[in-house]
DNA sequence: ACTCCGGTCATTACATCGAC
DNA sequence: GTCGATGTAATGACCGGAGT
């Protein structure tokens, strides 16, 4: 099973039904452990035990499958800033007990995910769960006064794939009511250099033991730091406490960086050192009003004071230093490891979780590409913009108000690249100057040329996705809606109808999702022709599927008709619309191929380049029933063909996009002579109006 | 400011059951 | 045999306070 990131491999043949026979007991998790390590988390969706005459079975899905179920009572706003990870991932496996013995068969129902594999498993709650064994270990260690940090470190050492975070440890300990008595670490560090991730977490860059806080010592420390940093990774902003020797050293070693003083340090020092100089509170008040100036004036003196007291501390220092040198190395290592786990978890959460607050469309382009913290900041700004009148741009962020007024999403490019960095890979700051994508492009071209036609189509789709970042194949999460109660079955009975291939291709073209079913599962659909009949024979009152169209258009939709859901459904729709009956879909395909070939120049121009022309030709050139999905109709390209060929005005209506195709080759006639056909595409069907 | 952790809410994993 | 709806326990995650 190599089902990664969407629809990569094979495109037609009967495949999968990968039957793995396993021992009954360990059937579920054994196999899935491997998946976990591939960065995909598999959970049990539901199961049936051997009761009521049922055969035992287990359905596995991806942790991101399904939709969010809102259980919160309508009314008060949620208290906690939480989010969801569900994105309707279609991945599904079925475990079935064999009739003859205790073995289990694992059948792949859908081997594709509609989201990329995760980079780290930290931050994925299910993956971070403690196993029975681990939790026993935790209890033991807690009883022995081992600190949470150290417990986590031990767990990580036991199993390198462990994805537990410190939170899980806290929760588990509380559950067991084990209190820890362990004292604080004896280790004290003199100089700690930390960095900040896009998710607002700090991490240790290095720890330095200094003999004393003198400029030369700092210079040495910074030199070492510079030595281990890449040339292009030098910091652009450095925040320090008001340590003059350090400031001087930084100026010498990092001349390009902006040095900022940490305000917290300043105010704390001011408070600690200056307040006692004043007899009454009133004088102190006047002092604090201009404290900024005074701090600067008083700094030299205060610095000398601190240095003096520090030096007296250092008289005791050598013994501590010896101890640290001998025993603290592992502690530093543990500390760093835990920080890394936290950072990984925060990055993953930013990538997969969508907080309820971030559902408005203004965040559309940012979700899952930008750190959550940045989104929170933007949300705050955006609320501030709301509270101001539209003309006031004096404070807050005028850009956000502007985007909101225009009703367009905040573009990803408007954010600083630091906030977009959601991995631990190195970056080259001078990307625009030194980086070139040509070698990679050439590799792609080579691979493209070596591939067969279906693979070429795949590659092209992927490339288009890359070229247009807004069209991620991640599904936009559902807006929290009313999901309670079982919907009435009266409206229509086709709730269990399999999605048509047409829909998957269209949604793929739209960049929102990937075909949820591999072609092999088609056999499942075909076994149930009666279901399709049910769809067709439904009375049209009220208009079925009406809720699946944009609300603004609904009043104008008078009726809808469904067609058979094979890979030709798009062409069936057109055939029925032009009056030749849906079963003559093959003629539509032939007509469109003719059209395409007769006007080669025109279409290469229209479609942009010859590759897309070939792709379209390949798509149309199939006259077998149930074609593989690279022969399914895609929009908008086929839309032009239909409008031109049949001289009609074509409308495409869907939640994702509504398009109109005009027949541009013919001379416009009187209005009454216009022939309009409308194709809708929705959740699982498509029909005519 | 930072760490730890209790209290509590929110989300999810999973089982069960009825309808088709 | 299959699927969807739904109840519910488990558990992850957030908030805020105490201590350092």
From TrEMBL:
It comes from Citrus sinensis (Sweet orange). Residues 189-269 form the MULE transposase domain. GO terms for molecular function: DNA-binding transcription factor activity, RNA polymerase II-specific. GO terms for biological process: cellular response to iron ion starvation; positive regulation of transcription by RNA polymerase II. This is MULE transposase domain-containing protein.
